[in-house]
């Protein structure tokens, strides 16, 4: 069934442009070569990224080779895959064999993994071309990409402002047209919040639907890889490509990922949408106003909107800032100067470890390792980590109740629009507040998506968030597609590809 | 902030030793303050009544995920050692180890 | 009373020293922790080979090297072997999870070890020593092994080393750690426990049990208390015990050392001590003042292991009878009374080498039990591998020839040696070697001839010089080319003298 936006994989006239799908279609039917596409994007990056610093590594040579191989497949009459020739940018915490994977940290500067992440293999199998590795907050810890050891990324809408984080580089790259698709990772909002601040679509899948093998771990029970795209359809297509069981990841579901693209056209007639008070109260006025408008748009499209309060959400941020640092403190122990990465020499192995980690980690990473170590230490485990894991259960149970009344939930993605670079670096908790609307989904393991919906008075993008139950991607995308179709058209960012 | 557990420099130093990170005194003082602030927020959940609530270690109800006892190719040693800070005799070289393995 | 003990240092000579309780008024309290490597093809969490002696760092992959982005996937055979051990030790098999044990050491690729903490797979078991003592087994849990560190320079001693080299081939090898309750009361019992545990591990097929090769590692927790009291004294953990003999000697030494301290009014300091084989002492390691805080928390990259009743009973059915049961079955051949020490040793040897069937088959065929046991434990077990390949009915036939007097014991042993080396039928071998026992009549004839040829000696023998039996027997053996039965010769000589 087709709606006003055409069939699932090709946009109707007047619909939002879908750069990735346009490319894939053209490469598949031979009207455009993957090589030409790659040159165009490499040129854009070379011209524009100096101002944005979205990329840590641009993979000129390998991207060209991959594009050539796609073109050969097309020429040979083979199926080159659903993303044939589409350049994809990868957050630099995903392992790419032989290509530096730094996590934007000095401690991994120059490290070349001897293996590819599973998602990388899946992208290549789909014909995509990996064009580069993007900047992030060091080890994915942050909400602004200011914690990168290699300097911040700038928001294409206003380069004096942050793109959000931690997947700021991926978000900026897509927003500025430097790559049609990107992957990021979301542990506490790190895909959705930068998507909101950059005016693009960012989605965190259900925990366990996308393999984490090859994703450098931050908080293992929260991390998920997800798509950053211009449109909802592209998000669904990319999710379908990267998702699915992986024998190398014990936490990856064996059940097939729900096929989502076919659900996109279903509309929202009769769907029950809950507007969550805790995801609207306390956010900036402009953000709150856009969320209410989004609710109105859904109502106009036939959905039933109602208000709902989930008080347990208020405990999400403190619980997150115990669980995530705790797991991170353990995940980051391996960076000890012994087997790879930075080493600062010393007289003993112990001193070498301590000096290496002191030199190699930035302040936010150190802060979270300290916090996590403290939370797990003897005498504090029950009160902090143990208790935080129970708060997760409270949130899951509260959501289960809510989903008896509603099909999806709605709210802001993050309380503010893009803030100035440097504005929040001195107060950790002020920065952490950026995550207040996003962490409940990570704690519960549920999917959520951020859609651009209007701007603030200064023209900075606002994102609204749709939350769904576990494995509820189909209904989530359904609602997102409708929101997208009724959202105000966003002006192109100040900095963008020619 | 009332209710903030005060963290002394010694507390921070102990944590830094566990985490094996060298911190200067200034850093220790800064982290002591910043950690105390975050822990103060976390203390809000410490006070919640969670009687009878099971912790969620995993959002997924998975059980018994295993693989067969069959060999898979190992990595090329040269590729791995090429990334190592110091190597001798095909092994990773480190300065002398002071302590004992527990 | 105390003077004796104060002077008896380093008398940890033989295992027969046995218990020191009672004589000095002190009771040793000992618990053993045994780590055994499982005989799986591959490692616990990855598909690298579980092999001893390969070139360093050739059996490594992202997972066992702990590379950024790597994840563990559990080896099902390791779980099965762990369950076999649980069954063999009469444990309760429970749903279990993995925990991370966090500490830094260069042989730890992730600087945390994946182990089991408060929810282990096997609990509440027991092991019965041959002397009837029941030692409780608190737990037997799964964990991964570390890499191997070599300390270079300074004579190989840890504290004088110039640097260290690490090989991760062993990192990730599956281990089961078996922890006994402190039910052991002497070094002798400790040796018996370790020896019996070894036999059990080998019998389950789960492990090689080779202490010298490191596939079975024993640490001893030793404390002492006043005889008749129930509170536990401060204990020390003794490591670096590479043989049963070292185990016995080290425990003896440590008991003496602690008694010496306490009787002098000093305290025993809780610490880890290394056994120095050359000097015959335990020494405290130069370790940190603080106890390790391992910050255990549930491993988020793995899911619970819940063996259902079907799996458990499959495992239980797959292992044969344990050594204790097999020894009892052999002992029962000799009647309901407990067997004597020498016979018990023979039985233990037979079971140790897996040669039970030789004895039971022979006994079932009417062979005298003592004879069957002797030939198996004394002769056949000289080459256990060959003995295990022996054709059982051929072995029984050989014993029947001996029992029927067709072969004397010397000949029988020679045929058996031949069969061990080359196999074959005993009658054929006997014929080939010219072994046929002499008829009584011809024996008497030969004796008479020998007497006639040595009248002086015969007169001396008649006069009472019994030593000449050897001379005459030798002459008869020469004349019959070894076919005479020495006992029959002696009997004939006595008969003629009488």
Distance linking N and C termini of chain A: 36 Å
Strand order of the largest sheet of chain A: 1-3-2-4-6-5-10-11-9-7-8
* Topology order of chain A in helix (H) and strand (E) letters: HHEHEHEHEHEEHEHEHHHHEHHEEH
The greatest interface here is: A-B, 69 and 49 residues
| Share of helix of chain B, binned | 25-40%
Distance between the termini of chain B: 40 Å
Strand content of chain B: 5-15%
Biggest sheet features of chain A: 11 strands, mixed
**Spans of chain B with pLDDT under 50 lasting ≥5 residues?**
none
Q: Fraction of residues of chain A in helices?
A: 25-40%
The total of helices of chain B stands at 3
What shape does the CA trace of chain A take? globular
What is the makeup of the main sheet of chain B? 2 strands, antiparallel
How many runs of DSSP E, i.e. beta strands of chain A? 11
Any overview of this molecule?
The complex is a heterotrimer of chains A (498), B (102) and C (498). Chain A has 498 residues and is of the alpha/beta class. Chain A is 37% helix and 12% strand. Chain A has helices at 19-28, 34-52, 60-75, 118-125, 168-175, 192-198, 232-242, 285-300, 316-331, 349-360, 363-376, 382-405, 428-432, 439-444, 473-486, and strands at residues 55-58, 87-91, 129-134, 181-186, 201-204, 224-229, 272-276, 304-308, 408-412, 448-455, 461-467. In chain A, strand 7 (272-276), helix 8 and strand 8 (304-308) form a beta-alpha-beta unit. In chain A, helix 2 (34-52) packs antiparallel against helix 3, helix 9 crosses helix 11 (363-376) and helix 9 packs across helix 12 (382-405). The longest helix of chain A is centred in the last third of the chain and has 24 residues, at 382-405. Chain A is globular, with a radius of gyration of 21 Å. Residues 1-14 of chain A have low confidence and may be disordered. By secondary structure, chain B is mainly α. Helices cover 36% and strands 8% of the residues of chain B. Chain B has helices at residues 9-18, 25-46, 77-81; strands spanning 66-67, 87-88, 91-94. Chain B has a two-stranded antiparallel ribbon with strand order 2-3. Chain B is flat, with a radius of gyration of 22 Å. Chain B starts with 8 loop residues before the first helix and ends in an 8-residue tail after the last strand. Chain C is elongated and about 90 Å long. Helices cover 39% and strands 17% of the residues of chain C. Chain C is of the alpha+beta class and 498 residues long. In chain C, the strands form three sheets. Chain C has a nine-stranded mixed beta sheet. A three-stranded antiparallel beta sheet of chain C has the order 5-4-15, with no helix packed on it. Chain C has a two-stranded antiparallel sheet with strand order 8-9. Chain C has helices spanning 2-7, 76-88, 187-204, 244-263, 309-318, 323-331, 341-352, 356-364, 369-379, 384-389, 392-403, 409-422, 426-432, 440-453, 455-462, 468-480, 486-497; strands spanning 26-37, 74-75, 92-93, 99-102, 112-115, 122-128, 134-144, 148-152, 163-167, 174-180, 216-226, 236-241, 272-276, 281-284, 297-298.
């Amino acid at each position: 069934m087709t709606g006003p936006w055409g069939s699932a994989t090709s946009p109707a006239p007047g619909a939002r442009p879908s750069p990735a799908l346009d490319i894939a279609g053209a490469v598949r039917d031979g009207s455009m070569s993957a090589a030409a596409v790659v040159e165009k994007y490499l040129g854009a990056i070379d011209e524009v990224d100096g101002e944005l610093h979205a990329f840590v590594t641009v993979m000129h040579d390998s991207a060209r080779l991959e594009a050539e191989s796609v073109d050969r497949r097309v020429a040979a009459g083979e199926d080159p895959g659903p993303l044939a020739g589409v350049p994809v940018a990868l957050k630099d915490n995903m392992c790419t064999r032989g290509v530096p994977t730094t996590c934007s940290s000095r401690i991994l500067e120059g490290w070349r993994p001897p293996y590819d992440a599973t998602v990388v293999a899946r992208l290549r199998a789909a014909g995509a071309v990996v064009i580069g590795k993007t900047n992030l907050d060091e080890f994915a810890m942050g909400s602004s990409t200011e914690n990168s050891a290699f300097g911040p990324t700038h928001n294409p809408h206003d380069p004096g402002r942050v793109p959000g984080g931690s997947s700021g580089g991926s978000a900026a790259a897509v927003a500025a047209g430097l790559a049609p698709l990107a992957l990021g990772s979301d542990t506490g909002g790190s895909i959705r919040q930068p998507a909101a601040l950059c005016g693009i679509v960012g989605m965190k899948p259900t925990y366990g639907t996308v393999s984490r093998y090859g994703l450098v771990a931050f908080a293992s029970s929260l991390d998920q890889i997800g798509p950053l795209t211009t449109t909802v359809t592209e998000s669904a297509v990319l999710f379908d490509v990267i998702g699915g069981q992986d024998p190398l990841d014990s936490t990856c579901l064996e059940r097939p990922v729900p096929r989502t693209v076919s659900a996109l056209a279903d509309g929202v007639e009769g769907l029950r949408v809950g507007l969550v008070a805790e995801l609207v109260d306390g956010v900036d006025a402009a953000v709150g106003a856009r969320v209410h408008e989004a609710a109105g748009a859904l109502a106009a499209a036939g959905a039933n909107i109602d208000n709902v309060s989930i008080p347990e959400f208020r405990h999400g941020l403190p619980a997150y800032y115990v669980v995530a640092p705790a797991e991170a403190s353990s995940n980051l122990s391996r960076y000890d100067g012994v087997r790879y990465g930075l080493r600062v020499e010393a007289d003993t192995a112990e001193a070498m470890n301590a000096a290496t980690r002191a030199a190699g980690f930035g302040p936010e990473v150190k802060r979270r390792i300290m916090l996590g170590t403290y939370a797990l230490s003897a005498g504090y485990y029950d009160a902090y980590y143990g208790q935080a894991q129970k708060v997760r259960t409270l949130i899951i149970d509260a959501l289960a109740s809510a989903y008896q009344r509603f099909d999806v939930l709605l709210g802001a993605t993050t309380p503010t629009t893009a803030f100035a670079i440097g504005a929040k670096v001195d107060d950790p908790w002020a920065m952490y507040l950026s995550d207040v609307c996003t962490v409940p989904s990570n704690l519960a393991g549920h999917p959520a998506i951020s859609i651009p919906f209007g701007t603030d008075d200064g023209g900075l993008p606002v994102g609204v968030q749709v939350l769904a139950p576990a494995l509820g991607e189909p209904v989530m995308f359904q609602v997102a597609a409708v929101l997208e179709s009724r959202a105000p058209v966003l002006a192109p960012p100040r900095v963008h590809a020619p | 902030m009332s209710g903030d557990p005060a963290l002394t420099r010694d507390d921070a130093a102990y944590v830094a030793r566990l985490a094996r990170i060298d911190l200067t005194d200034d850093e220790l003082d800064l982290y002591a303050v910043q950690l105390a602030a975050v822990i103060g927020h976390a203390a809000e959940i410490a006070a919640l009544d969670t009687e009878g609530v099971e912790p969620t270690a995993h959002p997924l109800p998975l059980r018994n995920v295993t693989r067969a006892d069959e060999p898979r190719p190992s990595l090329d040693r040269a590729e791995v050692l090429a990334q190592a800070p110091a190597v001798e005799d095909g092994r990773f070289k480190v300065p002398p180890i002071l302590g004992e393995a527990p | 009373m105390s003077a004796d003990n104060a002077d008896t240092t380093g008398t940890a000579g033989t295992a027969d020293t046995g218990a020191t309780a009672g004589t000095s008024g002190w009771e040793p309290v000992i618990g053993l922790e045994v780590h055994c490597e499982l005989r799986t093809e591959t490692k616990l969490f990855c598909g690298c080979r579980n092999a001893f002696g390969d070139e360093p760092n050739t059996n490594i992959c992202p997972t066992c090297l702990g590379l950024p982005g790597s994840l563990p996937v559990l080896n099902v055979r390791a779980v099965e072997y762990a369950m076999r051990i649980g069954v063999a030790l009469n444990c309760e098999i429970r749903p279990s999870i993995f925990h991370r044990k966090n500490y830094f050491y260069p042989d730890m690729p992730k600087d945390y070890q994946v182990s089991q903490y408060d929810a282990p797979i096997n609990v509440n078991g027991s092991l019965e020593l041959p002397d009837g003592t029941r030692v409780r087994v608190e737990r037997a849990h799964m964990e991964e092994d570390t890499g191997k560190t070599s300390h270079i320079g300074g004579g190989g001693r840890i504290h004088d080393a110039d640097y260290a080299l690490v090989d991760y081939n062993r990192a990730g090898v599956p281990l089961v750690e078996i922890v006994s309750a402190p039910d052991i009361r002497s070094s002798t019992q400790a040796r018996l426990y370790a020896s019996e545990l070894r036999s059990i591990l080998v019998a389950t097929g789960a492990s090689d049990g080779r202490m010298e090769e490191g596939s079975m590692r024993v640490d001893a927790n030793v404390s002492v208390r006043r005889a008749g009291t129930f509170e536990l004294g401060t204990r020390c953990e003794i490591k670096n015990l590479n043989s049963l003999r070292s185990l016995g000697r080290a425990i003896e030494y440590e008991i003496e050392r602690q008694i010496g301290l306490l009787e002098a009014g000093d305290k025993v300091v809780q610490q880890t001590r290394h056994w120095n084989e050359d000097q015959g002492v335990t020494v405290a390691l130069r370790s940190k003042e603080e106890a390790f805080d391992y910050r255990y928390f549930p491993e988020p990259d793995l899911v619970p292991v819940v063996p259902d009743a079907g799996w458990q009973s499959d495992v239980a059915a797959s292992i044969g009878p344990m050594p204790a049961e097999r020894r009892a079955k052999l002992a029962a051949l000799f009647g309901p009374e407990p067997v004597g020490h020498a016979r018990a040793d023979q039985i233990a040897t037979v079971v140790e080498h897996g040669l039970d069937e030789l004895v039971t088959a022979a006994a079932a065929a009417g062979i005298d039990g003592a004879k069957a046991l002797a030939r198996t434990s004394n002769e056949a077990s000289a080459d256990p591998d060959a003995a295990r390949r022996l054709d059982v009915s051929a072995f029984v036939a050989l014993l029947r020839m001996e029992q029927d007097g067709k072969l004397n014991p010397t000949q029988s042993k020679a045929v058996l040696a031949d069969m061990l080396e080359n196999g074959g039928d005993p009658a054929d071998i006997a014929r080939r070697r010219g072994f046929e026992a002499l008829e009584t009549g011809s024996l008497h004839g030969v004796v008479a001839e020998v007497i006639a040829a040595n009248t002086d000696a015969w007169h001396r023998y008649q006069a009472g010089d019994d030593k000449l039996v050897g001379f005459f027997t030798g002459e008869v053996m020469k004349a019959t080319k070894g076919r005479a039965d020495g006992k029959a010769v002696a009997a004939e000589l006595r008969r003629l003298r009488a």
